[in-house]
Design brief:
3 domains, alpha+beta, TIM Barrel, Immunoglobulin-like, 7 helices, five-stranded antiparallel β-sheet
C-alpha cells in the first residue's frame, strides 16, 4: 500500500509564542493547569527562583521527587512553550516525501535560545513495517549519528505494500503513524510539544494510557515495564549495578510498547544527552542538540519489533563460543598469585570456569598497556595465561579508554604524536581525572586511533 498522505485543512490553535512576563504566565503555572505529574523541568536541578523566573518559567516552592529520590526540580515550563511550525512545499519522492517546516511566529520563544526558523522534513518508508521521520535544520548542517559508526539501510523506493499509515496536519504541523490492521496509534506527534532549537529539541507522542512501555535503558531496576510519571535520563555512566534506578554503560533512546496484545517500537537516533519523560499517556524526548531522526516499528509482536529495530541499527554480532561459558571477574585482585589461587580453587571445587578476567589492578599505576612490575610481572602473567590456554581456558584483561597525561609514557606520547585525543570547544585537549590521574581520551572516530592488534598481543596476552 502506497504512502497515505492526507492533507488536513483543520486549523488547530497554538500559542502565539510571545515572551510572557511573570504576571502573564501565572495562569499557565497553576496546579490545576499543570499538575506535578505533567510538569516539564526548566533548566538544571539547581536552578534558583530568580533564574527560573528570568527564563519565563514557573516556580513552585514545594519540591517534588521521583521514586528514586532524584529531585525533579521546582522550576518548570509554562503551558505555552511551543509556537509550532507550518508545513509547506510537500513533494512525494520514490521512497516517501520531503517538505519544509516554517516557524509560525518568527520570534519563537526565548527559553533555551531561539527557535530555528526553517526545518526540513523527510519521510522514508524503509520497509513495509518501518518508517523513518527525519527533521533537521534546513539551512545548516547539524550533528547526527555518523553512518560510519552506525550504518543504516536507506530505502530507494516504497515497499509494494505497508502495514502502517502516515498522515499529517499542515498547521500546526503534526503527524500520526497508525497500524493498518487494528488502527492502533504507533506515534502521534503532539504539536504543542514540538520544539527545535540549536541546543534543545523536544518531541512528544500521545498514546493509550493502557499501554505498557519497556526499554529506555541502560539502567539497573527490578521492574521490566517502565513506571510512568518518571524522568529517564539517557547519559551513560560507570556505576556499580547494585544501585537501582541508576544509569549504566549504554544509552538506548528506544522503547517498545504493548497494547491490546500487540507491540510496536520507537527509536530516536540521537546521541546527545537527553531526558525522556514518561507520562500516563505520553512520552517526551528532550535532547541537548542533534536532530529528530525517528524510526517507528510496526511490530506487531515483541520479537518482530526487535527484528525491525536491529534491521536498522545492525544485528548483534555472533559471539565466540567460549564467551558464552562461565566467567570470573573482580576488581581488587592484589597479585597474579592471588588470581592463580582463585582459578585453582574453582577447579578444586569442581566449579566450571571458561574465562578468567583481571581488572585494572594489573596495570602500573593504572596506565593502559603496562604491567605492575611487582604484583603482576609480565613474565609470570604470560606463564599463567599459557597454563589457562593449555587447559582450554581463556584470559581477558580489562583496558580503560583513558591515557594518563605523562611525559615518557609511550601510549601518551604516541597519542600526542598522532593527535588522536578528544578536544574541547577551544581546540585544546579535553582533560579528565580518572584512575591514573590527569587523563586524555582517544577519539575513536579518528582514523589513527586504532591500536595495532600485534601491539596489544605483545603487551597483553589475551584470549
Amino acid at each position: 500500500m502506497l504512502l497515505n498522505l492526507i492533507l488536513s485543512l483543520a486549523i488547530i490553535g497554538v500559542a502565539n509564542g510571545e515572551i510572557l512576563g511573570n504576571s502573564d504566565i501565572s495562569a499557565q503555572c497553576s496546579a490545576s493547569v499543570l499538575p506535578v505529574h505533567l510538569r516539564r523541568r526548566c533548566g538544571v536541578l539547581e536552578t534558583t527562583q530568580t533564574e527560573c523566573l528570568q527564563k519565563g518559567c514557573c516556580w513552585d516552592p514545594k519540591e517534588t521527587a521521583d521514586i528514586s529520590g532524584i529531585r525533579q526540580g521546582s522550576c518548570f515550563e509554562p503551558r505555552t512553550f511551543s509556537t509550532g511550525y507550518r508545513l509547506s512545499r510537500v513533494h512525494e519522492t520514490p521512497s516517501g516525501l520531503t517538505a519544509m517546516l516554517s516557524l509560525v511566529n518568527s520570534n519563537g520563544t526565548s527559553t533555551y535560545g531561539p527557535d530555528l526558523q526553517t526545518l526540513s522534513l523527510q519521510v522514508v518508508m524503509e520497509s513495509e513495517d518501518v518508517i523513518r521521520v527525519k527533521i533537521t535544520d534546513a539551512d545548516n548542517k547539524r550533528w547526527e549519528v555518523p553512518e560510519s559508526v552506525v550504518a543504516r539501510p536507506h530505502a530507494l523506493t516504497k515497499p509494494s505494500s505497508s502495514n502502517y499509515k502516515f498522515t499529517y496536519n499542515t498547521f500546526p504541523f503534526s503527524f500520526e503513524v497508525t497500524r493498518v490492521s487494528d488502527g492502533n496509534v504507533l506515534f502521534a506527534l503532539d504539536a504543542s510539544r514540538f520544539v527545535f532549537k540549536d541546543q534543545y529539541l523536544e518531541i512528544s507522542t500521545k498514546y493509550d494510557s493502557a499501554a505498557k512501555t519497556f526499554g529506555l535503558g541502560e539502567s539497573a531496576r527490578t521492574n521490566h515495564a517502565l513506571e510512568t510519571n518518571r524522568l529517564y535520563t539517557m547519559w551513560a555512566e560507570d556505576l556499580p549495578a547494585m544501585f537501582f534506578h541508576q544509569n549504566l554503560y549504554g544509552s538506548y533512546p528506544y522503547y517498545l510498547q504493548m497494547l491490546n496484545g500487540n507491540a510496536h517500537g520507537v527509536m530516536l537516533m540521537n546521541s546527545n544527552g537527553m531526558d525522556v519523560h514518561l507520562e500516563d499517556s505520553a512520552v517526551t524526548f528532550k535532547t541537548t542538540g542533534g536532530i529528530v531522526d525517528l524510526y517507528i516499528f510496526n511490530g506487531p509482536t515483541p520479537s518482530t519489533v526487535v527484528s525491525q529495530y536491529t534491521s536498522i541499527i545492525g544485528r548483534p554480532a555472533m559471539m565466540p563460543y567460549w564467551s558464552l561459558g562461565f566467567h570470573n571477574c573482580k576488581y581488587g585482585y592484589e597479585s597474579i598469585q592471588q588470581v592463580e589461587e582463585v582459578v585453582a580453587n574453582y577447579s578444586a571445587a569442581n566449579i566450571p570456569l571458561d574465562t578468567q578476567w583481571v581488572d585494572i589492578d594489573y596495570m602500573q599505576n593504572y596506565r593502559d598497556f603496562t604491567w605492575d612490575s611487582v604484583n603482576f610481572p609480565q613474565e609470570e602473567v604470560v606463564s599463567f595465561v599459557n597454563k589457562l590456554h593449555a587447559n582450554g581456558q581463556h584470559f581477558v584483561p580489562i583496558v580503560d579508554p583513558g591515557i594518563m597525561v605523562k611525559d615518557g609514557y609511550p601510549a601518551y606520547e604516541d597519542g600526542m604524536k598522532r593527535d588522536i585525543f578528544v578536544k574541547d570547544l577551544a581546540g585544546g585537549y579535553y582533560l579528565g581525572q580518572v584512575w591514573p590521574g590527569p587523563t586524555y581520551f582517544p577519539d575513536f572516530l579518528h582514523p589513527d586511533a586504532q591500536v595495532s592488534t600485534n601491539i596489544i598481543h605483545s603487551l597483553l596476552p589475551i584470549m
